[in-house]
């Protein structure tokens, strides 16, 4: 362990709190006092002595957010959006007097959830907020920047009601396509042909459409996925070899869609194009595992919401129910 004065007047800490085989921690400070405080913090929190309990983390949540940004947020393509969400949640917690990590107990989290529900948030929205905070702490734990257990793991999520989900019929699709033009039409056609999200399709470049496939790069889970398309559609949408292909208007496409289908469930809007692809894929006899890969779902449970659209889904209920067996309806199996 050492605190060394550098040529620029700062002080560098170089320490291995778990011995020569352990992790090496180095950091620079403007004063020797700050460096000494940091050394004491490291020796107390980063030891490998199982018989010594690690003390509560008394850092401010805003400090943890800053460390999350350094180790994860700034290098993630959704990092800035996530930071804004975390900042808002931390501000809400501060209204309750929860400003430090050690104050973020199971009871405090449960009180926070009640406060958010009282403000009119849906259980699903509260669950998402808790998941976002939990994710921040998990990233810090993985980066060895947070040494205490994740308190959000002790709180069971609210049970969420299944959201309404609709899709466009063949006639509604024809009506929608006939009323759009230019870039809006191209984007909607690609959404219906690939199941891509609007922002995934809208940001496509010429180099992402090649060999009869659309390659989605900026996806929700960060993983690339490729979806085949018809050669005629490829020729229609690929107007240049490189660079962004089009600049569709979300608001215009949404307005036309709402005129055609005014009873869309709240919060769906153009996401109904993705539902339409998945629904017709299953109705036409598509495979549920293939659909999972096309949509880029992490688990098959996410894709199973479309399973009941398959032609043969649960047909055994008709063939094997007791009325059929008694010869009252249908044919005996």
UniProtKB/TrEMBL annotation:
Residues 163-319 form the Tyr recombinase domain. Transmembrane segments: none annotated. GO terms for biological process: DNA integration; DNA recombination. The keyword Nucleotide-binding does not apply. It comes from the Bacteria. Residues 59-141 form the Core-binding (CB) domain. Pfam families: Int_N, Phage_integrase. Keywords: DNA integration, DNA recombination, DNA-binding. GO terms for molecular function: DNA binding. InterPro entries: CB (IPR044068), DNA_brk_join_enz (IPR011010), Int_N (IPR057084), Integrase-like_cat_sf (IPR013762), Integrase_catalytic (IPR002104), Integrase_recombinase_N (IPR010998), Tyrosine_recombinase_XerCD (IPR050090). This is Tyrosine-type recombinase/integrase. The lineage of its organism: Bacteria, Pseudomonadati, Pseudomonadota, Gammaproteobacteria, Enterobacterales.
């Amino acid at each position: 362990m050492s605190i060394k004065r550098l040529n620029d007047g700062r002080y560098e800490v170089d320490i291995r709190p778990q011995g020569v085989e352990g992790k090496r921690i180095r950091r620079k400070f403007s004063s020797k006092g700050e460096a000494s405080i940091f050394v004491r913090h490291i020796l107390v929190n980063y030891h490998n002595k199982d018989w010594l309990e690690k003390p509560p983390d008394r850092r401010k949540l805003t400090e943890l957010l800053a460390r999350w940004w350094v180790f994860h947020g700034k290098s993630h393509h959704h990092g800035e959006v996530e930071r804004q969400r975390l900042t808002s949640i931390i501000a809400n917690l501060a209204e309750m007097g929860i400003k430090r990590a050690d104050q973020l107990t199971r009871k405090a989290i449960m009180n926070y959830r009640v406060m958010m529900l009282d403000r009119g948030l849906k259980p699903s929205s509260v669950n998402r907020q808790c998941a976002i905070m939990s994710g921040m702490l998990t990233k810090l734990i993985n980066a060895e920047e947070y040494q205490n257990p994740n308190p959000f793991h002790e709180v069971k999520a609210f049970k969420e009601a299944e959201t309404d989900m609709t899709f466009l019929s063949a006639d509604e699709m024809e009506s929608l396509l006939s009323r759009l033009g230019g870039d809006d039409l191209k984007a909607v056609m690609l959404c219906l042909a690939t199941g891509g999200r609007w922002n995934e399709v809208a940001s496509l470049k010429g180099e992402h459409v090649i060999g009869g496939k659309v390659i989605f790069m900026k996806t929700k889970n960060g993983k690339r996925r490729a979806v085949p398309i018809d050669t005629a559609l490829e020729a229609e949408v690929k107007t240049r070899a490189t660079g962004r292909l089009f600049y569709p208007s979300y608001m215009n496409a949404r307005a036309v869609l709402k005129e055609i289908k005014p009873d869309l469930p709240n919060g769906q809007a153009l996401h109904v194009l993705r539902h339409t692809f998945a629904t017709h894929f299953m109705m036409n006899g598509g495979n549920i595992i293939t659909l999972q890969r096309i949509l880029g779902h992490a688990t098959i449970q996410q894709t199973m919401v479309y399973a009941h659209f398959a032609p043969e889904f649960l047909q055994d209920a008709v063939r094997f129910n007791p009325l059929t067996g008694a010869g009252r309806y249908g044919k005996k199996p």
